[in-house]
Prior knowledge:
The chain has about 575 residues and is an alpha+beta fold. It contains 18 helices and 17 strands.
Amino acid sequence: MHTRKKLIEVALPLDAINEASAKEKRPESSPHPRGVHLWWARRPLCAARAVLFSQLVDDPSEYVDELLADRDKRTVAERVLKNRLKDYEQKKVNVGEGEMLESEPTINAIIEDIERKRLFGIIEKMVLWKDADFEKTIENAREEIRCSWRRTCENSKDHPRAKEIFDPEKLPAFHDPFAGGGTLPLEASRLGLESHAGDLNPVAVLINKAMIEIPPKFGNHPPANPVSRSDKNWFDREWKGMDGIAEDIIYYSQWIRDEMRQRIGHYYPKAEISMEMIEERPDLKPYYGRELSVIAWLWARTVKSPNPSFAEVDVPLISNYMLSIIAGKEAYIEPVIEKNFYRFTVKTGKPIDMEMKKLGTKIGRAKFRCLMSGTPIDIEYIRSEFKAKRTGMKLMAIVVDGNPGRIYLNPTSEHEKAAFGVKPKWMPEGEMKGKSNQNVGCYGLTEWYELFTSRQLLALTTFSDLIEESRKRIYDDAVSADFLGNNKSLKSDDVDEKSYAEAISVYLSFVLNRCADFSNAHTRWVSGNQVVKSTFSRQAIPMIWDFPEAAILNDVIGGIIPTAKIIARSSKEISSGGGGIN
């Protein structure tokens, strides 16, 4: 049996692929499938798409006779050959002694080159994310793959299992046993192949379910939620791809958020601007009497002072006093010490000693000074305090939405009590191992629940419980909408209301996952952008001394609704077309 040479064995438009790959790997600037769930080793979709295409498509040298039989293509090739032969004859005359002369051009080589450039053109357009003609280009790519497959089937018609293996109407299936983030199976599906993905990592399995199993089952379907169904255009609208699923992700995330506000909202107070606050901060006068939504609470970890005179004082470990370094909008924390007590106040304007403010109480790597006495606090002492469970946390400032802009407020006992009065019903117990324990384990943080505050644990576990409750609601809504019909599980190949409810809950779990990346005690406050930076902005769980607690119930970075919108937009970029997917 003749093995046909593929395009990838001869040449590829590497510059175009590399440029598109570099652009795709830049920080998220537009919706992209990678936003569905973080996966560290995710490969650029465009590179996978180009490689798969070039592995499946014949190199033109394999079907020269077919090209020459095409009158139009042959005419173009003959015209090029005529010009090339003129150049060749001229070079023959001018070639110097000892110089090598390139081979004489032939019609075969030229028509191959023209055809190869045409295939390159498809790849060059195919790797451009969000190109206006993207779908048309992908369909052209699918047709090229089908043509190559038909040639393979024709060459293999004498194979004893030809009818079974070499069916010209059925492309071969794609199998990836270690699919990871789902890049290859997703792109194989986009190119028209039936994709099968697996992995040893359960997170990877879940990502692949969301990217290549669920979309073909429920893509091109309307949403099930009652708000979308109440729209008079619901029946007439053409629901393409993942549009319906995306709407349901947002709707049921809103339902979960609203339920959470009813159940635990009292632990998330707003900040009321009082006259007393205005007397200290005249810039707050326009907000008098208003209850402002909290963006984040800024906390500092504390240890007992190593100075015997202040041994009972929990002193803060602060890496930066600056809240905002934006020119003209500077804000910072100013500690006020009163005998054996200290408190924090927020100041606006540029501090005289900004560089010192940026250091907080830090004097070196994991080394601090006692706020009360100036006594150095070394890393060994800090570790011993953490391991002895004598650490705590102190509220430094409250970030609220000034609509527009951020406003920084002094901490209040009300807001501290709201956080400290929480007792989560469940905690993720279990010892952290491996790299997850590498940075924080030496400080005695060995259990998973120790990565979160009590309020964060309460919010995340409540969210998780509500995902389970939402399944029944989604199922009932899908039945009311006469969504499909049957009653089997996502574990089967059937498409029904029950499996749809399970499918939406998968995406809701991704919303929870992304929220957890912002709702833990190892995030950072970025004073330049004035935003919460997620824990996994790098591939480690870092030890953070002062951290922001995002207001998960509000419309902020790390909040449920903004996060759900990211997951929904990202899911819409997943192809639900192409080949059947398993």
